[in-house]
Amino acid sequence: MSAPEHAPPVEALAPTEPQLRAAASTFAMLSSPVRLHLVWLAAQGTHSVGELADRAGVTTAAASQHLTKLRLAGLVSVRQSGRQHFYEVDDPHVLTLIGQIFDHIAPDGTLAPDPPMPRP
């Protein structure tokens, strides 16, 4: 009996305890629908706090609090211009993570069907 095609290679290194804690912390940070929406929006381009708040449907104060947590977690970056703060996602790992999760979840909230596997 052969291993399923999606199984990781046997030689893959197990994650370390620090990696597991950091990953769990990252997923916990993204477990808030508002924060996940803000990260998704920031992954689409650079936006001010006000723009992100409007698009996410939250107050500017709430968006600012969430964005501060996301920045401290390393999920978004900020640039200041005068009194305004502009947020974006510039980490390719975060961009991939956000893209993958929404490829995995269909618009109706169900799991999206797996794409067809290429035949050898």
TrEMBL record:
Alphabetically ordered keywords of this record: DNA-binding, Transcription, Transcription regulation
SMART domains, A to Z: HTH_ARSR (SM00418)
Top-level division of the source organism's lineage: Bacteria
GO molecular function: DNA binding; DNA-binding transcription factor activity
Short name of any one Pfam family annotated for the protein: HTH_20
Entries under InterPro entries matching the protein: ArsR-like_HTH (IPR011991), HTH_ArsR_DNA-bd_dom (IPR001845), Metal_resp_trans_reg (IPR051011), WH-like_DNA-bd_sf (IPR036388), WH_DNA-bd_sf (IPR036390)
Domain HTH arsR-type: start-end pairs: 15-109
Name of the featured protein: Winged helix-turn-helix transcriptional regulator
Organism for this UniProt entry: Nakamurella flavida
